[in-house]
């Protein structure tokens, strides 16, 4: 028996395949999103704090039109595998390319609203569809 715990041993091809088969689809997608965040050099949403200027990346889970104080607002939930945040474009009813399942990079100042992280009117970059 080896003294090195299983998690610290290098995983062989068979072990990695077995792990992938026994892991849920949601966990696999979350792991892929976390890797994308590191590769893009962005801040993980789970590490973002109130009033911090950040650049985050992830996949849009939902996109809804929800008026705020009588002003149209396009609201989307961005998930990066660690946590989710709401991305809100005030005064917009729709934006071409902003749709569920689309990956994007967003930059701006995080604020907290009702206990959730929110990014208002961020600078954003749509990720190419070919990479999905």
Describe the structure.
- This protein has 132 residues and is of the alpha+beta class.
- It has a 5-stranded mixed barrel.
- It has 2 helices and 6 strands, in the order H-H-E-E-E-E-E-E.
- Helix content is 20%, strand content 36%.
Which geometry do the CA atoms define?
elongated
What gyration radius follows from the Cα positions, in whole Å?
18 Å
Estimate the helix proportion, in percent.
Answer: 10-25%
Strand proportion, as a percent range, falls in 35-45%
> Could you describe the largest sheet, including whether it forms a barrel?
5 strands, mixed, barrel
Mean pLDDT: 85
Number of helices, where a helix is a run of at least 4 consecutive DSSP H or I residues: 2
Q: Element order, helices and strands?
A: HHEEEEEE
Secondary-structure map:
Elements: H1 13-22, H2 25-40, E1 53-65, E2 73-79, E3 84-90, E4 103-113, E5 116-120, E6 123-126
Parallel strand pairs: 3-5
Antiparallel strand pairs: 1-2, 1-4, 2-3, 4-5, 4-6
Question: What key phrases describe this protein's structure?
Answer:
alpha+beta, single chain, 132 residues, elongated, 5-stranded mixed β-barrel, 2 helices
Briefly characterize the structure.
With about 130 residues, this protein is an alpha+beta fold. It is about 20% helix and about 35% strand. The model has no long low-confidence stretch (mean pLDDT about 85).
